[in-house]
Amino acid sequence: MAEKLPSEFIRELEFVSTLHEQAVCNKEKCREFSETLSNLLVRLEDMKYYRTADRLMSILINCSPKEASH
After folding, report:
1. What pLDDT is recorded for position 54?
2. Is residue 55 classed exposed, middle or buried when 0-12, 13-18 and 19+ CB atoms within 10 A define those classes?
């Protein structure tokens, strides 16, 4: 059964998605994306949305833009 996220989280995920699009070759946006997604991840875990939190963790682990990693 799929998790039903509150609408506030859907809006925040949409915002983070927009940040990710802007983060290409922009280390400040990349940092903001990572921090925002990390904070959202913690909140989701606190609310016991573990499957969604796992997906966000996977995104954070796999997101390593070359420009921002220096």
Report:
1. 92
2. middle
pLDDT string in tens for the chain (70-residue length): 456 778 888 898 888 888 877 777 778 888 888 898 899 999 999 999 999 899 889 888 887 665 544 4
Distance CA 40, CA 52 (A): 10
Distance of CA 57 to the CA centre of its chain: 8
Angstrom CA distances, 7 to 11, 12, 44, 65, stand at 6, 9, 13, 29
Cβ pair 41, 56 in contact under 8 A:
yes
Residue whose structure tokens are 């990349």? 30
